[in-house]
Design goal:
By secondary structure, this protein is mostly beta strands. It is built from no helices and 16 strands. Helix content is about 0%, strand content about 55%.
Length: about 180
């Protein structure tokens, strides 16, 4: 559906030049001279890249994106199998399609799939996930030359910076938006 620039709001999904974007922020500008325009920040749903774009007297194509809950089943090489929780249909997705969430996936984990025209655009993991630390250096007491953090590898392959007291075998909570350690579980 095409709308004018006055209909641009935060959270609106639009399609520009064949690419799907999400409106992160917008600002209506009414200069003293000339016509009004809208300055926006758009997030590419597939890649996560931010685009700044100014719209003047033009029509914008809005779209409806379907959100469904998928359950991660297993992976086989570069193919990851997911199941739609509502219809029980299985969707094989290639590693390239899920590269943003690959290091967060654990078996039976639920993710949100963004679907447009029957095609999965991207997957969104839960905001917080609990992962087991499989390897990290032991923290040395009194070593303050570092900032009190050390790298640690999780069971999914994600490398995260954790405090010195975290050791192998610990379960930690990770914020998937920032890829940062939140706490021990």
């Amino acid at each position: 559906m095409q709308v004018g620039i006055n209909a641009i709001k935060n959270g609106l999904n639009i399609e520009l030049e064949g690419t799907v974007y999400y409106v992160v922020s917008y600002e209506n500008v009414k200069p003293g001279k000339g016509s009004a325009f809208v300055r926006t920040k758009l997030k590419n749903i597939k890649t996560g890249a931010i685009l700044e774009r100014t719209f003047r007297n033009e029509k914008i194509e809005t779209i409806d994106i379907d959100k469904r809950t998928f359950q991660y089943l297993y992976s086989s090489g570069d193919i990851y199998e997911f199941m739609d929780r509502d219809t029980y249909d299985q969707f094989p997705l290639h590693r390239d399609q899920i590269s943003q969430v690959e290091n967060y996936l654990k078996e039976n984990m639920e993710v949100t799939a963004l679907i447009y025209k029957g095609r999965v655009l991207t997957l969104e993991p839960p905001i917080f996930i609990d992962l087991k630390i499989i390897s990290t250096e032991p923290g040395i007491r009194g070593d303050t030359s570092k900032s009190g953090n050390k790298p640690a590898k999780t069971e999914t392959g994600l490398i995260v910076s954790v405090p010195l007291f975290v050791s192998e075998g610990d379960m930690v909570r990770i914020d998937t938006r920032t890829k940062e350690y939140v706490g021990r579980v």
